[in-house]
Amino acid sequence: MFDKLHEECGVFGIYEPSLANVAKSTYFALYALQHRGQESCGIAVNNDGIINYHRDLGLVPEVFTENVLNKLGQGNMAVGHVRYSTTGACARNNAQPLVIRHVKGPMALAHNGNLINALELREEFELEGAIFHSSNDTEVIAYAITKNRISTPSIETAVEQAMYKIKGAYSLVIMSAKKMIGARDPHGFRPLCIGKCENGAIVFASESCALDSIGAEFVRDVLPGEIVVVENNEMKSIKTHCGCKGNLCVFEFVYFARPDSIIDGASVQRARHRAGAYLSLEHPVQADVVIGCPDSGLEAAMGYAHQSGIPYAVGFIKNRYVARTFIKPNQNEREDAVKIKLNAVKNTVAGKRVILVDDSIVRGTTMGKIVKLLRDAGAKEVHIRISSPPFISECFFGTDVDSKENLIACRMTNEEICKYIGADSLGYLSISSVNQIAEGAHCGFCDGCFTGKYPIEPPKTVCKDRFEKKLSEKNQ
Fold first, then answer.
1. Catalytic site positions
2. Nearest to residue 400, comparing CAs of 26, 75, 85?
3. All domains of the chain, ordered by start, with CATH?
């Protein structure tokens, strides 16, 4: 309904020292990671080498009822996943974790990211006799690992060898019969951290907020290129692919991650506050009140207000009960749909010059309707401030920006966008500032969607449903 980017997914894994209800712990962690993917979810539980799993389309509480969790049973390991598809269609067979059974034992795999050479690898593996059951790139990773597993002494060595083959963004949680593995691509495009519970359980998660949800203490981030292996209640690290400082997607700090998470050493909440402060310095304007677009612009709006001295206030009330399953409006009904989701607070904006802060304008399909809500509520002026630079290029590493023709900043000038959305002024955060918002971060950043420059050579084309299209071409 809203003009927002989506991140591919969230992963979680837990290794318990003894038999426990790991499914329920994973459920709570996935609930905390729900913002990273709302299309499908899944949990796989390992009980002495026997892996039971359940996955389906829907939100975590929709898919995992008490009855389903009980059927998964107890175990000493579990892997969980929430998905938004950036490769492969939204379909039940693309839900994760992927569970593989082969001659060297079972394996469950959860993946966050996007491979840039998945199509080429899939064709290579198919020519060797591989049979694929899904249309996502995660199955390509699974096959690369299992192929190496035949000739290597351990699953971690198979993962290490597979990482020479797969290219792009991937944070992985892998569960074998006896081991739990966390791995991150050499550039660290997507986050992955390690936590520990009081009872000695070791966990992996996309964000630290998932650790908080189960009472785990944050230990550290998985390094770019690192493979962390948990076995017999102990961790070991393989750093064959380490060496790069990292190029974490900067949009994790702008929008994707939950504000209470700490990623690669930096507070997400603090980063958004700093983004608003920089925005105030770069694009000052005389106004009476600063408001944020819920929920993505609230922290940056507070930062803007604090830096500028202009009062901050609640400008919108968001209907929390309009969920993903809300009836999808057609083109003529979208304005009414925005009104159902958001309602302007007249007492805040009537007769006032308003600064509205949000994280981004992607396609420009919604911001004009939000500006109209403020005008209808009596706002005298509406000044839009965006806490990221304009999107001018595709993302190849796990975000659903797949075509320049859909990006408003590629079709219009800043002045044209301002007129199109009906604002009095429009200001974006600069590229130099967005790379400085994550105070204390011990990594570099990928800002390719803002600059067109990427840490690694991107593919010539990108398409979310490229596997489906390739299969269709073959069948014609």
1. 9
2. 85
3. 9-246 (3.60.20.10), 270-440 (3.40.50.2020)
